[in-house]
Amino acid sequence: MLRYILKRIGYMLVTLWIIITITFMLIHAVPGDPLASMARNLPEQIKKNFYAKYGLDQPPIVQYGRFMKRLVLNGDFGESLTYPGRSVSETLKRYAPTSARLGGQALLLGLVIGITLGIIAAFNRNTWIDYIVMFIAIIGVALPVFVLAALLQYTFTVKHQLLPTTGWGSFKHTILPTIGMSFGTIATYARYMRTSVLDVVGQDYILTAKAKGVSKVALVWKHVLRNALLPAITILGPQIAGLFGGAFITESIFAIPGIGFNFVESINNRDYTMIMGQTIFMATLFIVSLLIVDILYSVVDPRIRIDGESR
After folding, report:
1. Over the stretch 63-121, which tens digit does the pLDDT of each residue have?
2. Which of 23, 44, 111, 121 is least surrounded by CB atoms within 10 angstroms?
3. Hey, where are the domains in the chain?
4. pTM metric for this prediction
5. Alpha carbon distance 219, 221 (integer Å)
């Protein structure tokens, strides 16, 4: 296990370096620079001082070397170009907890409801219950997030005035965004769990348990759920990263001060350092979540052994 984890960490570092390099080069390949509009009306010498301060007067390869040196040696992402004096690390510390809370609630809600619906649909195959669950799953996949968010706002804030439309502060502000973000997860896990449970219930050991008179609850909990969860765990990593960092639309619509909202703003402002810092943060989260998923495989099913030599 230890050898496997260390090996995966090595792969993670290489992957992260590739992501950083590609992102850096793509950002600098776009014509123009983030200080163009800010320094447009400034005297030439002051303009040069601004460019020198942020290293934008150097070739991209030199800027890349400085950025990597600062990142590796000090863990420093640099200072925001749009908001002088505000470091990228401080911005991440400020906005990440908001996205983490919102994403965590959405993931938990999506897992609980999605897995439950999938199991119910599987044990009621080809009945009206199964058809309703699959209809919900299809709607969850097909319905765009911005449409769902607009419908939630209209229903619960405009028409009935039960919840706040936008903003952040109390638990009420998290309800609508959480529902909007969790709908896709509910749909995904409902479909995955239905297929997985149908595959498991046809196995010989399940038929034997039924013949022994094992109750339906015990059958689901002790025999079906544990084995049916394995395929569902596969998509847990991307779901974690996606809900944490990919809620750009949801956070923008509900005016939530999170990573997604700030990332969109950074792109619009062409804030190089802020874009790099948040991209590295998202990539690290995604890669680590994949490692956690691999470890969970061995926890859920002891038959699976993580062997560094075999992989």
Report:
1. 888 888 888 888 778 777 777 777 888 888 888 888 888 888 888 898 889 888 988 88
2. 44
3. 2-74, 96-300
4. 0.76
5. 6
